[in-house]
Amino acid sequence: MLARPERFFADKFGLSASVTERLLGGTLARRVDHADLYLEYRVTEELVLEEGAVKKASRHVSQGAGVRAQSGERTGYAHTDDLALPNLEEAVRQARAIADGAGDSAVVPVMTEGRPHDLYTLAEPPLAADVHAKVELLRSIDAAARAADPRVKQVIASLGSEDVVVLIAGPSGWTTGDIRPLTRLNVTVIAEDNGKREMGSFGGGGRVGFAFFQENERWRRFAGEAVRQAVLKLGAVEAPAGTMTVVLGPGWPGILLHEAVGHGLEGDFNRKGTSAFAGRLGQKVASEHVTVVDDGTIANRRGSLNVDDEGVPTRRNVLIEKGILRGYMQDRLNARLTQQEPTGNGRRESYAHPPLPRMTNTFMLAGEDDPQDIIRSVDHGLYAVNFGGGQVDITSGKFVFSASEAYLIEGGRVTAPVKGATLIGNGPDALTRVSRVGADLALDEGVGTCGKDGQSVPVGVGLPTIRIDGITVGGTQV
Asked: What are 156's strand-pairing partners?
């Protein structure tokens, strides 16, 4: 792919800066508060190895444009997968009509600021790597997982990659472009012993090339970790139930922070007053040990972007500082309506979706405690180091999360692995119960995908080891 998105779209589709300026400036901008054009060209590849055989090998190309017009709180959005000029002109007319109040729906399909960051320039984009080398990597993972333990009965290894070229144009003639690589390797293992079957899964990636997985045989660690989790569950005991102290491990357990707290700090929920954090800027909302940031500027991370999907440079946003609520994550619309600045959090799944305020890489900053001291401080509790699915109510903050890997803490020691543990609580309340924060902040391996209003985007999470007092744990033993 080309180094400059502006030249890419001009050469491939004839969409020069003068054309985009005419589309927006001449027919749209003078009648609305804000307008922009989003162009996208996406190539995706997926390889899946199952039972030692390639079960899926696909490559898909998509392209399209979305036109947005905003008038007051009303947003008109029209999109097309045909980048011919007449289609774009029709999309402009549809978006304007909706914003003027003449349309029936907020989203209709239709038949230069410059980049301050350079966070993921790669020697070789992930799609440029040899496909045969990718298949051989998956075969090596299959062999390594089966050799790790005789109880391994099934291995599924998948590698997904994409390159996306985007260009965002505004009515005043400014354009901002980005070329976004993304790749993810995932390993799922099923182990069986005496008729009992358990599954383990592990993966990682980011805005990195294929060589990332070959460095220091990183893929071998992924395979080994998936096997370890599956085998561990074979010997797990039933989880206890009741109110107890919970210690969350570093890294992926930050998904609880993302879901239970992060969504509640997005600008649209707070502007509409539907978040548990609405109207609480400057107030104490968490323990003084808690500082939460959203940072889209970390090099090569899955949730990072040079610019967001509205052309706003990403940045490091402090959301909660030592327990005090300092800010929300904003897109252009909610920032304008609340007289705040956009924070680089306007994100969309594709050209067919309007942008929304969304997280990038969201995590709690490290504290000063030794993680082992935190565990030793708990006489009876739960140590949760990995999570599966969960549900959150944004308005109330109530959450339910299932722990896919957890252990009992007895007498200050981590003991038996447990299964069936769920954490039940309220996000804002849980933040006030954080009593100790470890010095071991870790970000996840690069597998997060966040859903909101039917849109999915890649994100990152992170957490140091933390102690939360008085969380309800659902299990099978009382």
From this structure: 50, 188
